[in-house]
Amino acid sequence: MNLSNQKVLVVGLGISGVAAAKIAKRFGAEVVLSDAKEEEKLGDEVKELRDAGIKVVCGPQSNELLEGVTHIIVSPAVPVRIPLLQEACKRGMDVESEIEFAYHIAKSPILAVTGTNGKTTTTTLLGKLMETAFPVVGVGGNIGVPLSEECLRVGEGGCVVAEISSYQMEATDDFVPHVASVLNVTPDHVVRHGNLEVYQQMKEKMFAQQTKKDFLVLNYDDPKTRDMANRAPGTVCFFSRKELLDEGAIVADGVLTMRWNGKEIPVLPVKELQIPGGHNVENALAAMAMAYLAGAAPEKIAEVLRAFEGVEHRIEPVLNFEGVDYYNDSKATNTDSAIKALESFDAPVVLLAGGDDKMTDLTDFMHLVKERCRALVLVGNAAARFKEAALAAGIAPKAILEAGYSMEKAVELAKAAAQSGDVVLLSPACASFDMYSGMAERGRHFKDIVRRMAGK
Question: 7-93 architecture in CATH?
Answer without folding.
Answer: 3-Layer(aba) Sandwich (3.40)
